Amino acid sequence: MSRPVGTFNFSANFEPRLKAPLDARQVVNTFADLIDPSTWKDTDGNVWLYNGAIVGVANDDASLNGIYLLIDADNYTLSGSWSKTSGGGGSGDIIGENVGNGDASVYSEKVGSSLRFRTLVAGTGVTIDTSGNVIIIDASGSGSTYQSSLDPSLSSPSAVGGYPAGTTVYSLLGDSFTEFVDNLLFPTVNPTYVAPDNTFIDDADTLQEIGDDLDITYTATFNRGQILVSSVFQDYRSGLPVGYAFTDPSANTLLVDASSSSLTNIQVVNGYIAKIGTQTWTNNVSYLIGPQPLNNKGQAYGSPLPAGSTTNKSITMEGVYPLFGTTVNITTLTKQTLVSMLTGNNIVFSLVAESGGNKQKIDIPDTWTGSPTSRPLVGIQTYNTVSGQWEYQGGSAAISLTYWTTSAVTQTVQGNLINYTRFQYNGTDRSSIQIRLVF
């Protein structure tokens, strides 16, 4: 259909008795009124303009008065949406000003079918130069013109504000002054992250006597991580925890639910009997999806951390049998501080002086030198207080062992009789001395 057909039919015309058009929208006073939203809104705030609307500007500058055709009703507040059909400088006229010597004419706006120009005039210490479609203003006061924009190979040698090294003049031509200052002084800073993590500790010693009956408290904590902008905390990286999982040395897993606000979970193990060798417990924490990271301008960056779990954290203790030696009384073998049967070496005893036919002795558990740890005693060193050196008596590790007579004995450990090998010094009586066991 070439045009919409009207709703009401008339077989007569109108003879208005007022000095105004029948459609009040057909005349405005100034061109500014033409693009002013308040001109066109009715009492309900609605605008009824349409493509093809014809409006006259009646009381403006002579160059602006005339009849205008609306060619883009969706953007009626833009001067370019109104095409001037008559009046002012005449249809199709280009409205501008003469360009003086050394000055430059700059496009200002389009009014209907007319183009308006303004003139840039050089003042004191300012020169204006043109080259093709580029206008260069030099306000250095020297009167010289630096035409860096004409050479696309020129770029900044170092970063300035938000502009990286290598920024060219042409790359800035599309930026408004506000964008330029914003990027220069307030560059975009994207966030960095600290990943969520967990800690896992207990209140038990790393070394325990085999057979000891233990009550152990395990404490697991959850750190939600961080979203940082310029090293300043913005938000947590993860959501809140939803579960704590513990695994005991037998690989049995105990899942423990936690409230959404709980960042700590405590488990108590009662009556655990320490076994020989290493025993390990583990913990990890499950968490909800994290918040959306933002850059320093409040814009979304990247994605929230998905729901997941932390890596396993472990706690290991070792069950050992103690060593014994005559370190307090020559007639009594005293239990020594616990030492790892898996890695312990160069273990020092301060033996008391021999007297009354009582000899220096040490007791070593058979499970240390035999199965399952299989760490036989290599030699026994003595400390030479004159040279300040550890030495093998007799000159070698093997010969040093011949100065000690071995015998099978037992020691009571945690109520259990345990097989030990006793090493008794067989040399002439000697005073107090330090020895060192080498495995």
Describe the structure.
The protein is mainly beta and 439 residues long. The chain has helices spanning 31-34, 37-40, 177-185, 366-369, 397-401; strands at residues 27-28, 54-57, 66-70, 82-86, 104-111, 114-120, 127-131, 134-138, 192-194, 197-202, 207-209, 213-223, 226-229, 232-235, 241-247, 253-257, 264-273, 277-287, 308-309, 313-320, 324-329, 332-335, 347-351, 361-365, 379-384, 389-392, 404-413, 416-425, 433-438. The strands form eight sheets. Strands 11, 15, 16, 18, 19 and 20 form a six-stranded mixed sheet that branches. It has a five-stranded antiparallel sheet with strand order 22-21-24-28-27.
Note the topology.
Blueprint: E1 27-28, H1 31-34, H2 37-40, E2 54-57, E3 66-70, E4 82-86, E5 104-111, E6 114-120, E7 127-131, E8 134-138, H3 177-185, E9 192-194, E10 197-202, E11 207-209, E12 213-223, E13 226-229, E14 232-235, E15 241-247, E16 253-257, E17 264-273, E18 277-287, E19 308-309, E20 313-320, E21 324-329, E22 332-335, E23 347-351, E24 361-365, H4 366-369, E25 379-384, E26 389-392, H5 397-401, E27 404-413, E28 416-425, E29 433-438
Parallel strand pairs: 1-2, 11-20
Antiparallel strand pairs: 2-3, 3-4, 5-6, 7-8, 9-13, 10-12, 12-17, 13-14, 15-16, 15-18, 18-19, 18-20, 21-22, 21-24, 23-29, 24-28, 25-26, 25-29, 27-28
Helix content: under 10%
Amino-to-carboxy terminus distance: 105 Å
Evaluate the radius of gyration: 47 Å
Number of β-strand runs: 29
Number of helices: 5
What's the average pLDDT?
86
For the biggest sheet, the summary is: 6 strands, mixed
* Low-confidence spans: 87-101, 142-149
